[in-house]
Design brief:
Layout: H1 5-15, E1 19-23, E2 33-37, E3 43-48, H2 54-71, E4 79-81, H3 90-96
Parallel strand pairs: 1-3
Antiparallel strand pairs: 2-3, 2-4
Amino acid sequence: MLKDGPLLAIQFLARHGIVLVIAPHLTNTYLDGAAMRLDDGAPVIGLSVRYDRLDNFWFCLLHELAHVGGTWKTRRRAVPAQCDPLPCRTRSRTRALKGQPRFAAVD
């Protein structure tokens, strides 16, 4: 395993026109990542450091790349993602996030 794998991934994605932004964990959220497009159509992936582990980085990055590569061709909005592989109680988490800032549409 390469210890500089995440840096190599960022450089690889940049060479292929995909911006990868890594931000600190947003307190009181379960947000791991989001995929969106700029007005010119360029894809942007944002990852938080909710879990500061390499396995979580790669899982979330691949999850967001799946959106970029296939599932969002007709959508032009942010796709927030919770990349926690453990079962969750989505309704209770959604209720807990009421009033939290949401991603703005890219349209």
